[in-house]
Each structure stands twice: as structure tokens, then as C-alpha cells.
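Team,

Forwarding the record for the chain on the shared tracking sheet. I've put the sequence and predicted structure together so nobody has to dig through attachments.
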Amino acid sequence: MTTTDNADQVVVRLDGVRKEFGESIALDGVSLEIRAGEAVAVMGPSGSGKSTLLNMVAGLDRPTSGRVVVHGEDLEGLGEKELALFRRRRIGMIFQFFNLLDDLPALDNVALAAQLTGTPAKAARKRALELLGELGIADRKDIYPAALSGGERQRVAVARALMNRPALLLADEPTGALDSRSGDQVMDLLIDLNTIGQTLLMVTHDERLAMRCASRVIEFADGRMDSERTLERHV
């Protein structure tokens, strides 16, 4: 089912979302809205529900109860194949450990994201090269992930996440596996993307990432939103 109420403004809506894994409660009645152009950082201790929240928004997990609406689409109404296609077209994902395919060079890692949605290979590779250029690593297009630095690998991952012009960019500890210099470069990238209108939802333990990149910080504890604050971002 597709909703139209405020779909042009609200990119993510969770209504009373609860997620149980056996006896464990990962999310306990979470309600949340993220509007277009926001950069939201979710923080909290391990086991507080942060990653489960991200998986709910990505449609990787389904709630035990409650409702998840992303880009106007009620995820409950989508089958597994529809969810996979929705993720590829509307959501970009950046992971702590990059999740690149080791047997493909940088350009093909990026282009594959579009080819999986039916984009012809030539057009996909053209856009992939443009993105690598915008991210300053076009000269690394033929290099395999094992020969790239951590910062370069994360830039390739960002390019891949942006291939299908997603309504929402999800980042799971995007600086967690990087040294401070590479981490700063990725922070700058996220800030630049948000400045031109990309909606971001980040899960992080890194207070500095949250302070630099987010317009709103939500603290989680025991599966619930414990507090939230709006920030004036200082770059």
C-alpha cells in the first residue's frame, strides 16, 4: 500500500514499532519521523536497538507489530522480492566494513547496483564513473578492493549507495573501520551530500561523527528512544 499523506516531506515514519527476537525485545514501541533533507544520527550502547532500527527502515527485518513507511511505501505490504527491488531503487546503504565484492574492480562494484535494477551496463558504468569522479577516485576505477585504502573503499561504497539516486541514505558505523584521516574524509562527504539535499540516517558510536554530520541526534536505550536533540552543525 502506498501512502500519500506528507509523502513529499516525511521520508521515514515508524508508528509504534516493536521487534521481538524470541524472549528479547529489540525495539519497544518506537515512533519516529525523518523528513526530507534531515541528517539523523542514532546513538546508544550495543544492544540498545540501533541496528535493528536501521534494518527495519531498510526492510531487512519486519516488525513484530507497528508500521514502517519509507518514501510513502508501507513496507508491510511488500513481499520479499518487492522489498529487495524497493531497497535497490530507493535506499542507499553504507556499511562499516564496506561490503564490496572482492572479485570486481571499483567501477564494476558501483555499476552493479544500477544493473541489478535493470539499467543497461553501458549507462550504469557511465554513471558509476561520474560518481567516482565526483568522489575524487576516478583514477582508482580499475583497482580491486583489496588494493584500495580503507578511505578509498568507503568512497566506492558511497558511490555504490548513490547509484540509483536513493530517497534515503542509510549508514551503519560508516567511519568505524577507518583511521581518523579517512574518517574525516567520509564525514566531509556525508556533510556535502546532506547539504545538497540527501536525507541521511546514521547509526554510530562516534560522537564526533554525530556532532559534525547530523542535524538531529537520537539516543537509544533498551529498545526505546531515550532522548533526542536538534543540533546546529559545526563543520
